Structures are given as structure tokens and as C-alpha cells.
Amino acid sequence: MAVYALTGFSLVSLLSFGYLSWDWMKPSLVADVATDPMEKSLPPTFTRPPHIIFILTDDQGYHDIGYHGSDIQTPTLDRLAAEGVKLENYYIQPICTPSRSQLITGRYQIHTGLQHSIIRPRQPNCLPLDQVTLPQKLQEAGYSTHMVGKWHLGFYKKECLPTRRGFDTFLGSLTGNVDYYTYDNCDGPGVCGYDLHEGEDVAWDQSGKYSTFLYAQRVSKILASHSPKEPIFIYVAFQAVHTPLQSPKEYIYRYRSMGNVARRKYAAMVTCMDEAVKNITWALKKYGFYDNSVIVFSTDNGGQTFSGGSNWPLRGRKGTYWEGGVRGIGFVHSPLIKRKRRTSWALVHITDWYPTLVSLARGNLSNVQGLDGYNVWPAISEGKESPRTEILHNIDPLYNHAKYGSLQDGFGIWNTAVQASIRVGEWKLLTGDPGYSDWIPPQTLTNFPGSWWNLERLTDGLRKSVWLFNITADPYERYDLSEQRPDVVRTLLMRLVHYNRTAIPVRYPAENPRAHPDFNGGAWGPWASEDDGEEWEGGREPLKSRNKKKKKKCKICKLRSFFRKLNTRLMSNRI
Hints:
- The protein is built from 14 helices and 18 strands.
- The chain is of the alpha/beta class.
- α6 runs parallel beside α8.
- The chain is globular.
- Keywords: Calcium, Glycoprotein, Hydrolase, Metal-binding.
- Residues 510-552 are annotated as: Disordered.
- This is ARSI Arylsulfatase.
């Protein structure tokens, strides 16, 4: 048997360090904080709907928070989680758009047509307009609703914008990946544009401000101008800690001892985001919102390991259906929680926030049909059993079919070449190609590569198309039980068949040249008219820019971006 090693380390040495035997229940990492029994007494009764602050981070790895044993400093998040309820059986989606769409609609992506990949900047596609969104339901309940940060749910026409989908105000980016200072985003060579918007206008004047700080400052400004007697919902979707890896250098300096440059920059971004959350929490207290508030913290998918993130000790990374891609960091902090300072192992999925938060807001769910989420507030606040017993991670018929999958391998009821994953009770099933499958320790060594070894090579895993794990007993997905328990495999395949019958067609239209920022004054933004269909691909010539000043300004921004990136690169070589 071949043993893959690097710089003197081997699988045996890793085991000797205890890496692969990391105790899932180790008190210092995830267990309850010792408290006085009186601290579990009931909180003040809800006298009015609570203020809701939902914080979503981008590409933060499962390992990359202090209470999961990380070497990254997150004192604010650690304290908020310790004083609230940590969700250690919490699931998200493996990439950006799917997680965000399921949060906003409370539906699996097979029920919105977004089951394949992400919404790309030039696609005439967005969150289906027939979906009643979470902020719209909260508006019905009397809430003021605000969004700050990354949208990534489509923008090809104005009806798709956040301000048309339930948010009273919006400051943020529409695409999925922008420069933290210049807000430029390139979707291929020569297809670049500015992407920071205030409401439905381009926020040219905010260029140069680091997005993590800018967004936290906007939240504080919103709170300062709002009465705490009126309920408010703020959705804070940080760009951090998605690439590009950019941070104020004073935060990078804290991690100067880290040999791996990507990990060093990434760690700085996480700590900077932690400080932004501290400022938001401080504003809640300063302006009188805190005592009647609910703060939800969630990641959107697993960490990207070759960009500094770590999901250790879980298997896989962002973009995969292994636990490292779909098990998220999550916690709830609120004075209104009845049983605080504990860890919850209740099964929770990102779709559950829709019915949970609408119920907290005393909104009406009776006219919303087909939700896949559950109200999990009793499980979070009181420690009751979760109403959720299974999660459909996804069924993606467009993803590359696995070479060795077949209908025969799926007992004649499911083609195992199709990428799909489901959890039912303690069992998790994966079919097709689940994605990159290594266990990747934190990248702490100089020039540390994406992976130290590939255990899949030792088991010839690439010739498989079905995996089964008892995820409760084996959260690291080390022991495939598909051959030992064909009865369970068949049962879970039947659940996939059931869900697949309810799926709607995939919405993944071809890119449209009219989306080019050069036809929109140099910025990313809507390009289709209100009369065009939802998957409009157009046939008319691109509209020429009517705003010459903005176009010139964008050129200046691009020049500034070039010199800033050059300076950042030079500084990186010094640090």
C-alpha cells in the first residue's frame, strides 16, 4: 500500500498526533459551557416581535472559528455562541447561490430550479419571481427590512433586485466575487465591471472602502435611524471571507508567524469579520435593540481549502457534498432564548430559517405552500426535539455524470451516475461524483499544498458511485457502509426518487452578451426590460451607455484597482 507523505509527515504521523481521532464530543471544542442552573430559567416573555439580525459569512470553513479549535482568533463569535446556542448538527449547501436561495425561500433548490451551480453574472436568471421571500413575509408582519452585503441571486432585470424582493434598503454587490476595496468584478478576460449598489443605483462614491467595515458601518447607521419600538430585520451577508484574499495589513500582521501565505491572509479576514460582528452587536446595545433581538450566525458553505480555509476534521471542501462542504458553522444568540449556554445537536438546515423567523415575527405561514423548512425555534430555544428528520442535500442532473455509475447499481430505481446526496436520520447517502474527497488538515506550513494525502486513492474510491455513512457515529465519513447495508442504500435511493418526482426543470440559461458592464456604464446591473420573460435571452443590440461620466469614472476605478493590486502584491512579499 502506498503511503503519501509530505515534508516528513505521513498518515501514520498524523494519527500519532491524534488528527484523525479528534474527539467529536471534546468539551473544549463543542460542548456546553458550564453554567448555573438558574441561567436556564425562562427569559422575559415576548412582548413584541423581536428584532432579527441574520449574519451570513462567505466560504468560512467549519474549522475556522475559535470554539472548533482553530488557530484563528474569533473572540466575538466565540462569546456570542457560548452565551447562546451552538448548532452542531447544522447543514447548508456546498456553494453560494443554493444556500442563499434556500435561506430566502425556505425551499430546496430542486423546487426553485437552481439545483445546478450558481447564477453567473451574464446569465438571464434569478431567484424565481413567483417565490414569496423571507423579507416579504416579514414586511407583511410589520417589519422594516434591510439587506447589507452579497446578493448573488440574479439581477438581469430590475424585478430580480433585492429592493424588489422584499428589502426596503440594500447596500452591497449583486455578483458573487468582487474586490474588497474597488468593487470590481471580472467574469472572464475583458468582462469587468464595478459592483457596489445602493438600492437600485450604482454606489460609485463608496469605492475604496473595505467592504467588511463598510457593511458593519451601514448596519450601525440603520440601527441609529430606526426606533427600537418597531421590529426590524437586517440580513448581513458579508463578502468575507471569499476570495480575493484581501485584508487591512494590521490584521495580517497578527498572523505573521503563519508560514502559509493564503492561510495568513484568510485568517486576517476572519478576524476582521469577527470585529465587524462585534461592532454590530455593540450598535444593537447602544441603540436599544439588543434585549429584544435574535442574532443568527451562519456560514454559506464549506471553506475553500486552496484559498486558506479549513474544514478539518471533516471530509471535503466547498463545492462538495462531503460533510466539509455542507456542514456549517451556526449559532443563535438572544436574550429571548429559554435555555442558553449550550450546544444543540438538533438537526437543522438552512431552509428552516424561513418558517422559524416568520413564526418568531408572528407572521402568517398559512398561505405559503410547499416549504421544505421547519420551525426549529422550540428545538433551539427550549432544547426540544427537532421536527426535521431528513435533508435533501441536492439532486443535480446537469453535473458531470460519474463514470462508473449506472441504473443497475441503483437497484434499477436510480441512476447512480447522477450527483445526489440525502440524509435520513443517522444515514447519509451520496451518488454520482460528490466532489473532492480528501481530509485536509489546517494549512499551517510554508507553501502548504491543498492536501497532504488522498485516502481515496488507497481505497480506489474513484471507481465508486454510491457511498453510505452512519453520519452520527462517523461524522468524518471514514467508513463506507454501502456494501454492508444495501437495504439502507435502497431505502435512501427511494427517498431520492420521491424528491426527484417533485423537482422542477433546471434554470441554467446561456450567458447573454448584453450583460457586459460596458453596456451599463461600466457597472454590473440589470440589462433586460421588465417585459422580457424570466429566461429572456434577447435579440436586440446592446444598449449603449448614456452616462459618459460614469463610464469614465469606471475607467479611473479600474486604473486605481490596478495600482492597488500592484501595491498589495508588493506588500504581500514583505509580510
